[in-house]
Amino acid sequence: MNDKIVCSDNQKKEYRTKCKDLIMSYIETHKNERFSAADISKYVTEADSRTNITTIYRNLEKLTSDGTLIKTKNPANDFCFYQYAGEDSRCDGHLHMQCRICGKVVHLNDRYMAEVYSHMAKELGFKIDFRASVLVGVCKNCRILPI
Prior knowledge:
The protein is an alpha+beta fold. Helix content is 33%, strand content 22%. It contains four helices and eight strands. It has helices at residues 18-29, 37-46, 53-65, 111-124; strands spanning 3-6, 13-16, 34-35, 69-73, 80-84, 95-99, 105-108, 135-137. A hairpin with a 6-residue loop joins β1 and β2 (13-16). α2 crosses α3 (53-65).
């Protein structure tokens, strides 16, 4: 059964479903990671919900449209990843680093990086698409140091 919720900011009715609640629960526990529709589907299936992948994609697209999520595509294969945009939805002014092992995303928005971005624009004439940016590596928690 669907619960009806009235949004106070625009008085538009929004229907809350079990699927959307599960997706939001997943996002809440993975705020600092990039994830795929397949990750969400696995989570929803494990929660014993019989939701099809089309419904998951539809919900992810709505969350992207309203600014809750940022969607990035891998240009090599058009595979999409999503990430939580943050409380202020401002991921359009800095690069991101992602651990290839745990998936953690780090936002690079300090003063030093601002100098790097400025250098890239002025000296190289390169404008970065920050919302689609990701540098992949291994975080300090996942790095295995040789003995």
